[in-house]
Records
---
Amino acid sequence: MDNFNLPKKGEYPAYYDRYLGLVENQNYCELIEKQINDLMDLFKSKSEDWPNQPYQEGKWSPKEVLGHVIDTERIMTFRGLCFARGERSALPGFDQDPYVLNARFGAVPTQLLLEDFSASRKALVSLIRTLSDEMLDFPGQVNVNQMTPRALFWIIPGHFIHHLDILKTRY
């Protein structure tokens, strides 16, 4: 399956409206591929030291933002896989700040982070192509919230758009 519709209200907590409102009902796999290119183009257009510079004290650097996006997408993909396979146990949430701090993304070469992003996106597309519409609608629980794989997978490109916009406008 290369495409599937956006989730309906009730398939995810209202908090995620902020990300889902950034995507349109379009070909999902094409959107995911386009976002890989958009990110590569942005990083290529910047100076060599740009990836390590936060836009203000206490904020993440572009490399840390990218690492956060990669981690979040992996977690969302894992959750979507679990629910698509019928997992009934509640999955835990995660706190993004310790993840970024403990990952030490500043020490990871920028090119490696970009390759990692691309590889994880391609793995996401590969997974989605194996899922049926029915599997995309199996509900699961994250913390106390019910979500479907469909919602989790669509949150990924919306979350990316949110952070790409920040990288473009504040850095």
---
Amino acid sequence: MTQSNDVTVTEVQRKILFEGRELADVNPCSSVEDVVKMHAVTTPELATAVIEGPEIKEGARVYTVKKRLGTKG
């Protein structure tokens, strides 16, 4: 008797969220930090942002990017 063990491998997608919107994962081979730095060119507040996660949600690794809170003066 022969048994068949079918294994399905599903790639887990990576999502990077900032202020309720998803940032494009411009280079999935790069670290999340590097992708956020690439977006900082057009969104300057990302240059000092804090990255939290990942959390697994709906089959994706979700990273949340938040503005760093600082003090002035």
---
Amino acid sequence: MDSKDRQIIRTLQAHGRMTNQDLAERVSLSPSPCLRRLRLLEESGAIRGYSAEVDAKAYGLPITVFVRVRLERHNEEDVKRFESRVMDIDEVLECHVLTGASDYQLLVAVADLDAYEDFIRNRIHRIGGIASIDTSFVYGTVKKTSVFPML
């Protein structure tokens, strides 16, 4: 991947609905080479897909929570069980494996505190093998972007 490919990716991250003509103009390419590069980026998996950025509050999920989970044991069976179960929980938007005191950090979106309690009691606790859960509720966002920095 060269700097022009990165420029295409950054432009699409910031303005995903633009036409190939507009993209080509923004990255200083003619439309045919721009489209060829875009298709190669898609085929290689560098661009995995396209989506709309939606306001969670407007959608009906105004509560964002970071949930840090520590497992009781780190054997293959428990890790696979936790990870596969988390994949099936709709409220979990992201799940990251961590170093440090926690094993995982989940980004969770829920409608209200009752929904969060239901999420913990009826989805997370039922996975089993969890030693601790630490929760931080988001009450404001200073910066959120999906545009990568320039290299």
---
Amino acid sequence: MPLATSATSAIEYVLQLIALFGVAFALFHAVRQRGDAFTAADKLSKQGWIAILVIALLVLLVVPVINFIGIIAVVAMGVYLVDVRPKVDDIQRGPRW
């Protein structure tokens, strides 16, 4: 039984590190972007996304990722990385030929 507990703890630790890295990456990306790119992409403002991602980072620093509120923080990060980030990047790159 102790082996299963240590394996579970190791998996939770790895998931926590991945989530923290992902939120930190998303926050770093959001901070570096122009504010008008968010509104041009019809997304929440830059300040709104930075606030969401800072809260997600703080939550993941305190709460385990397998907790319900930790899952909400991971979902917020996922929405930013999958939906907002590509559109903001496309707006700033301009049209492709």
